[in-house]
């Protein structure tokens, strides 16, 4: 039996009593993991007791995901030990970790997109019968889903599902395997506030049976609400582990970033800033769009964006935001309805034409659509201007001129690039996003559409993004900011449109709206219904 | 039996005279003489390099194996010279590269044991001091001779046995390509069979290879499935014999005695033996007397039927061997009237096909399908 | 001082090149040890290979003849990869090109200076025709070109076997199942090496330049690397896909035309010598770069030619194939290893 150092004292959680001497359900001891140019983890010690919800807090890149990948057998540590119930274990693969009762729901889902939900649930599972029909698999899945109260469509192909639905499949898959330790990586990012509360209730119920939850997040309020203890990681190392009762937001924020952060209201504008135009610069008129699978993803959406304003689009991911940004940027053609730019009809215009008219686009998943990861930084930074001199003269492409343009964009983005012929995937996520943002800002003379621009970025990079948007707004450019971070939207937007099931539930003036109202609209309540129901909700 | 010395150019001319006098010997060498070529200079045995290029692997227990035995006989007869060989040479520009490589390694004599056509001629033209011999070739040059075996005679003999033993009268043939050695094989076989069963027919399947056990096995199976009960072919291995054995059918094979792969199904084989021929040609090359010739080794002098298989009845053996004796005595079964597969008379009644015509046979007789 | 090994997302070009060289040396060394263990003298064999390949005009001409189709089939596959398409059908397009060129050469009565360019165009069109259906199926129905191009290879081989042993069979070729000798041939460039060789190099340089220095090439690069990004930037992905795949087929067809009109002079089954499939290896060795194809084809040509030399030295085909396989195997390992580097812990930072 290992001696449990200072943090190994017995303690009481709100839900289950732990007898003195009970070994931690998970004890990570001196874990280290290295990646190219990065110390992902070093000297990390964490104990997770039975009955505990243990929060893992840290900025992006603090090493949370890596640490959990080690605990789940996806990575092997370069140093340190994993001790489960007092016994040292070596997880050669995720199968070993699952066998030890450790299950994880990843931020980036580990699902086979080409397989159905039922197949994904049963994939690599010892309890899956050797021979079974697709129908039987689906029936088993439906049963499991009903038992665990998670609504999924067993026959659907995972690739066709929204992000939120995919998360439900992930959770179902983990719970089906009798996990005793459930690891959740940013689980609420794709949930409405109500759905999040539902999840929290389920988690508390789960740990009350002597199980444990490791809850990864960088949302302080959430962590304070749900967890028993909090471990803060910074730069791959453990900063501290504290009982949640002894913590508050300011202190945790400080521990996380190493300095005070100020959530500032960026809506205030300078005197010399361009005013919001009277006429909309970009409008949607009853636009209907089908998604790649033929389902109606946008249903008669009408929306106006004015020059010099930031319009926030709130909503749970998968409610039509992707299609909205695609139809606005010409990547998708509307089934019906009109898209107007400065009053001119652009409904039939393609991506290149829309971009030429002065609309920039920071796409939802930059590696998937905004960049060609294997191509050079130069090739990637000139993708919006390769048709124009100096990069092209006639049909000739000039690599030298392209590199010069790439250098100026990188300079504006404050990204240091040692070699512009290096594949862009070698850059960090933050630097990629900065380059994409700067590239798009150069062409966004009328409107910039930014879909989840802060996703996967750390606080520093997010602040940079926000400053960029304010800069554009003050120049008189309209900005559409699609985000799942309500605080971000409230800080930045002049107006907020809330999407639900492919429709706009309402457009609110930010100054007069409360976070709870937006949350309710995200759950499908139209704006008009808010007044009557606000009382019962807040009680 | 023809004395091997008769296969030399001089002997060939003598025979030609004999044939002209109406005393033609079946399987003799009755191909036109070449324009007088000067013999190549003699080579000391210890300096000589003799090269063999094969179409299949020397381990095929068939055609290439037989030629490899010939090479070993050469090595035994002239222990000081050097032999080199390359097996499985494709019919592509790689063949030229291989023959060129023989030359650049100092080969004095190159035997191509299959028809490589232009791939060989291109090299021969550029190497006038090297003697070339092309098996199954048809374009002799000043430094390139051709040689082959009169396999159509033993094939006719085994065809008689086939005609007597086939119950359905439907014979199957696993062919390589639609080339003369295949036409003469299918035609001679069916003519032998029809001499005892006028209703016999022959179905051929070409598999585009001389050595492809898998394809040969598939072709054999397909032929049996189509009602054939006796298989023949021109494969360098035993694939279709094994199929016949398994299915209770019979088979006539090529090249060597391979009855152990199907003792019950084995009728006989067209066996070839190039040992004496190769030793003699190399001897002439070393002595400085070699000039290109175009021999076709006669039945009994390089090609013959193999000993009969265990299931071949005595009566069948007798009847077939009687024809063999007649052929050895000067009779030719390839005498008109012979019709082609479209019914046109190609050889008039009473007219006997010459060896040249038999060697270059490129049409199917009536009753042959699939070529 | 402690350190560790880390994997980089992309290898440094110099490191990759060194890894290649080390891999080839290591493969030869391994082969040498095995040969020595079996009683052969590896040094003598190496000396013979070097002498026969580079020490004689015959050898160099042979390599030149071998490299010509390899450059083109390698280029064909490499070009396809640029748009993200795996053209496994270079073999079939090679046959189709050879077939079309032979048809023109045999049946169009015209002087050489008309016939040769005509056969060249026919070769390209033949290759293009052979990839047309897989191209359209990929572009409009998202059918994997991997399967469709592969399957059409067998059709092309059988087609050529059919015409060369049937309707186009040489009336007096007799034994070999081939067409008649073509009335025209590519003029010789250097010894047995015909003009196909410099033309193949020129074509490669032109394609490489087109990909690097034209707007079209840039769009193809982006489209091939990430079709989503192409859609995002408003590039006509489908048009580029169709065009580049047809180009890929045409190049393989031209390889077939050069082989039949320049080297073999008769159409026959087996004429491709597997050049189409070897082209895949050339493209992989070239790491998809158009200019790298020249180096990849040269290496492949030398390996294949060495194989023939080794066979005349008494090694059998399987041994030679095993050595070829070893080289490619070690190259693949070397390529992967060149992604790794040793780093001291102290120097690493976030």
From TrEMBL, chain A:
This is Heme ABC transporter ATP-binding protein. It is found in: Cell membrane. The keyword Heme does not apply. GO terms for molecular function: ATP binding; ATP hydrolysis activity. GO terms for cellular component: plasma membrane. PROSITE patterns: ABC_TRANSPORTER_2. It is a peripheral membrane protein. CDD domains: ABC_Carb_Monos_I, ABC_Carb_Monos_II. Residues 26-260, 282-526 form the ABC transporter domain.
From TrEMBL, chain B:
PROSITE patterns: TAT (PS51318). It comes from Telmatospirillum siberiense. The keyword Membrane does not apply. This is BMP family ABC transporter substrate-binding protein. Keywords: Signal. GO terms for cellular component: plasma membrane. It comes from the Bacteria. Residues 50-293 form the ABC transporter substrate-binding protein PnrA-like domain. Pfam families: Bmp. CDD domains: PBP1_BMP-like (cd19963). InterPro entries: ABC-Purine-Binding, PnrA-like, TAT_signal.
Automatic annotation (TrEMBL), chain C:
InterPro entries: ABC_transp_permease (IPR001851). Its main location: membrane. It is found in: Cell membrane. One of its GO terms (cellular component) is plasma membrane. The chain crosses the membrane at residues 63-85, 92-108, 114-133, 145-163, 195-218, 239-258, 278-303, 315-334. CDD domains: TM_PBP1_transp_TpRbsC_like. The lineage of its organism: Bacteria, Pseudomonadati, Pseudomonadota, Alphaproteobacteria, Rhodospirillales. It is a multi-pass membrane protein. Keywords: Cell membrane, Membrane, Transmembrane, Transmembrane helix. This is ABC transporter permease. GO terms for molecular function: transmembrane transporter activity. The keyword Ribonucleoprotein does not apply.
